[in-house]
Every structure is written in structure tokens, then in C-alpha cells.
Write a structure and sequence with these properties.
Layout (H helix, E strand, L loop, with lengths): L1 H19 L1 H6 L1 H27 L3 H8 L1 H10 L4 H15 L7 H33 L3 H24 L1
């Protein structure tokens, strides 16, 4: 629950940034390319760090594992994918005519809704994950799988950035 709360707290400003700069970002290829590069760097770095810490956890890693709030806060801040996600989603919803964000009240209602939605989804995920925890708790593959996936996604993002 602490992890979920931390992620939700970071989601609000990220969604607000995305909404505020949606037009600028969706209309500028240079900005889009920089977001891809930033995402590639962060995902690859997190993936390698995850693989490295799965082998021999550092005192910092152990401390982060003990504090769900700190872990959620740091991982959310380092995950810039929320911004392009909300830019794309906001642009889509606007084009469809399903949302109008012409007043501060509507804007902040939308952004608050994104944060509440993320909170509910993560609570549901945590509940379901708790059911599987006894099965996967000490499984080595499960320990390194997030690092492998993040590294692969980061390398793919680098590939797509440099080949585009």
C-alpha cells in the first residue's frame, strides 16, 4: 500500500505535465526523440541495476526493499514513461471529443482521476500478487526477470531511437 501511495503521488504531477505540454510534445519531433532517448537510458539503467542487485543486494537495495514508499517514489520518479503515456492518452481522448480540459477545474479533475485510477489498479495488482507470493517468493527466475525485461526494453528503445 505504501508503494502504491508513492506511485500515485508521482503520477499526479507526471499526468499534469503531460496534459499541460501535450500540444507542444505531440507537435515537436525533436522533443519526442528526446523522450525516447531518456526512456531508453532509464529503462536500460534500471534493468542493469535490477540484474546487478538480484545477484548481490546492496545495503541501499535492501533498504529500498524494506520501504515500499521509498521504492515506489524512486521508481516512479525514474520512470518517465508515464508522461508519454498520458500525452498519448490525453491527445486521443481530446481528438475523440471525450474530454475537454479548458478550465483548471476540468484539468485537475482529469489529472486526479488518473492518479486515483492508478491507485486502484495497483491495489488490485497488489492483492492479486499477494495470492501468488508464496509460489514465487524465492524463485531465482522471478528475481531477475524484471531486470531482463527492462534491459531488453531499454535496448529496443535505443535501437528504435538510433534507427528512426
Amino acid at each position: 500500500m505504501r508503494f502504491t501511495l508513492a506511485v500515485t503521488l508521482v503520477e499526479y504531477p507526471y499526468a499534469w505535465i503531460a496534459v499541460e505540454f501535450e500540444h507542444l510534445i505531440t507537435s515537436s519531433p525533436i522533443v519526442q526523440q528526446n523522450f525516447k532517448l531518456l526512456a531508453a537510458i532509464v529503462m536500460t539503467g534500471l534493468g542493469i541495476l535490477s540484474l546487478w542487485s538480484a545477484r548481490k543486494p546492496s545495503p541501499l537495495t535492501v533498504k529500498l526493499q524494506e520501504s515500499g514508499f521509498r521504492k515506489g517514489l524512486i521508481l516512479s520518479i525514474l520512470n518517465p514513461q508515464a508522461i508519454p503515456w498520458w500525452i498519448g492518452m490525453t491527445a486521443y481522448l481530446k481528438v475523440q471529443g471525450w474530454i475537454v480540459l479548458d478550465t483548471p477545474w476540468r484539468l485537475h479533475s482529469y489529472v486526479l482521476g488518473t492518479s486515483v485510477g492508478v491507485f486502484i489498479l495497483l491495489v488490485l495488482l497488489a492483492f492479486l500478487a499477494q495470492k501468488l507470493a508464496s509460489i514465487i517468493k524465492h524463485n531465482r527466475v522471478v528475481a531477475v526477470l524484471p531486470g531482463i525485461i527492462l534491459t531488453a526494453l531499454g535496448l529496443f528503445a535505443f535501437y528504435s531511437y538510433f534507427t528512426a
